[in-house]
Amino acid sequence: MSTALTHAAATQQFAENGRISIEPNHKRIRVFFGGQVVADTTRSVYLFEKGLLPVYYIPRDDVNFDLLEPVDATTTCPWKGKARYWDLVVGDRRAEQSVWGYDVQLEDSLDLSPYVAFYWHRMDAWYEEDQQVFVHARDPYVRVDVLPSSRHVEVFIGDTLVADTVRPRLLFETSLPVRYYVPRIDVRSEFFTASDTRTSCPYKGTASYLSFTGSGGSAPVEDAAWYYPFTTAEASGIDDHVSFYPDRVRIVVDGAEVEN
């Protein structure tokens, strides 16, 4: 049995230095670049490092090394050791130093030698099973819950009431403030115009934005609100709903103003 498989079958493991840990990820992970599948595995692990987002580490046996060219560059991490790098080359496309791995286990750390990792944004696409994932690896300890509610939610910009509903959807996301999503039909659309801004979230999808055009003496507000034209399964309850930045508008819930 390979070391990678042993890791995948284990529970979370912590380094003696207390800075990193790994945990098995049983989802199928695929990485695409230049129309090629660069990695395809059901044996990856999450690597957690204090203060950083989790990273997928993929068994080297599940990576297409025919597409990788070793380079001389190295870096040293006090918690993981000395990393070597590879360029990823497909046809005339090259992602420089986009793959790294630790060949030698650092004393008081974990053995990462069976794995390599990829710089997320240098790849073309990432998938968990058959669902594309954006921005970064999904943290298994982040949960998103969308719940229907009968709370009275009012949204003001200046003195202008721009949204009013008693049927919001409340989105609870681990470690973040509650977000109040208002049905589109309860938003005064005449006060808003579409923005060119787009952002992506690995847990909810890709958001589009709305800017307040100005009304009743209130100044315009760029990107005052956002919505998800298409959501992930976890966030499906906020389809056709709009949420607002509490630091750009005034949100009142059951008569109490929401703090920024």
UniProtKB/TrEMBL annotation:
Q: Where is the DUF427 domain?
A: 29-120, 153-247
Q: Name one Pfam family in it.
A: NTP_transf_9
Q: Which Gene3D superfamilies match?
A: Domain of unknown function (DUF427)
InterPro entries with a match to the protein in the record? DUF427, DUF427_sf
* Entry superkingdom: Bacteria
Q: What is this protein called?
A: DUF427 domain-containing protein
